[in-house]
Amino acid sequence: MAVIIFGLLSAIVLYLLVNYSSLIAGVVLLGIPLAIMLVIPNAAIEFLNHEHVRLAGGIVPINNYHLLLFTWSTIIGIILYTEFLTWYLSRKKK
């Protein structure tokens, strides 16, 4: 279930990034989870704290918020890279 939700969030943000603007994609990337936290906090906290697996002999838990942070960092990197590439390609040579 979590993979579907994070995949859908990623697909929406990447669609907005390609077809509209990186600013809109960034706002949606951060806005959707924050809005859900404000609207239905108990369900959101329960979803984010869901534990998938424990690594290192049961010491390190992997929860949904780890997956969300992984998704955020990857897509924010893509957004920043496209912004930098757009800026670099639009520069005028002197």
Blueprint (SSEs and pairs):
Elements: H1 2-19, H2 22-39, H3 41-48, E1 51-55, E2 60-63, H4 64-90
Antiparallel strand pairs: 1-2
Helix pairs in contact: 1-2, 1-4, 2-3, 2-4
Describe this structure in words.
The chain is mostly helical. It has one domain. Helices cover 76% and strands 10% of the residues. The chain has 4 helices and 2 strands, in the order αααββα. It has a two-stranded antiparallel ribbon. The longest helix has 27 residues, at 64-90.
The total domain count is: 1
Separation, N- and C-terminal Cα atoms: 53 Å
What is the number of beta strands? 2
Question: Shape, please?
Answer: elongated
Rg for CA atoms: 17 Å
Physical arrangement of strands within the biggest beta sheet: 1-2
The major sheet is characterized as: 2 strands, antiparallel
Instruction: Tell me roughly what share of residues is in helical segments.
Output: over 70%
Total helices: the number is 4
The mean pLDDT is 88
How do the helices and strands follow one another from N- to C-terminus? HHHEEH
Which residues form runs of ≥5 with pLDDT under 50? Answer: none
- What proportion strand? 5-15%
Indicate the structural class. Answer: mainly alpha
Transmembrane segments: 12-45, 65-89
Keywords: Membrane, Transmembrane, Transmembrane helix
Provide a compact summary of the structure:
This protein has 94 residues and is mostly helical.
List keywords for this structure.
single chain; 94 residues; mainly alpha; two-stranded antiparallel ribbon; 10% strand
